[in-house]
Amino acid sequence: MDPQIEFRMEDDLVLQVTQIHEQVGKPFTTMLDIGAGSGILARAMAKNGTEMTTVELVPELVEYAKSCSPDSITIHCGDFYTIQLQQQFDVVSYMDGFGVGTDEEQLFLLKRIAGWMKEDGCALIDIYQPSYWRKVNGQEMQIDEAFRKYGYDEENERMLDTWWHNDHPEDAVTQSLRCYTVEEISKLCQKAGLKIVAIFPGGAMDYDEWNYSSLVSLNECLAYRIKVKK
């Protein structure tokens, strides 16, 4: 990896760790990160002294995480809809992925998150914001040899993120995530026995100026983070 790119990633991770501590708002020891991917956030949090546990479905990502993570991080390969975890945690996080399934599946997941939280614990969950994705519907971009197009499924209120290689457009892959207004996610959390105690707007891309702002208003951000408690 290019040292400059690696440096920028490390710099971004330091900011993420700082934000998580600020958003939790009090000292904590244990944290569960679900949909943890390669475990990069867990490693950054562990460096800061947090006892990390991760859950990731994709075996290749889990193997990579195990190959470059300290033994202090507990790494599980499994489906967070079915995996059985006996421990409860001060913090549960789900970054950049909530909304994969149906509303019923997300409600079930929120109930599981509630079960993994200590009574005085909290969860931090990233939620995709519908008005942003309506605005960027149809936006295309090129990244090296790959092409990317954003879409919005109005009927099902889902963002669509489609990637394809220039030479093989027939092999396009689309990720779809349910977007929620604050009112919608609040009602879903209530059904799961959770309440939103804080909302943290994220950033947004201005495609006219080709400029990314890391912090914009709640109505303009591509996603926002909710802090929930029992």
TrEMBL record:
GO molecular function per UniProt: methyltransferase activity
CDD domains in the record: AdoMet_MTases
Keywords, alphabetical: Methyltransferase, Transferase
One biological process term in Gene Ontology: methylation
Native source species: Sporosarcina saromensis
Signal peptide: none
Name this protein carries in UniProt: Class I SAM-dependent methyltransferase
Enzyme class: transferase
Pfam families from the UniProt entry: Methyltransf_23
Keyword Transferase (UniProt): yes
InterPro entries: SAM-dependent_MTases_sf (IPR029063)
Source organism phylogeny: Bacteria, Bacillati, Bacillota, Bacilli, Bacillales
EC number: 2.1.-.-
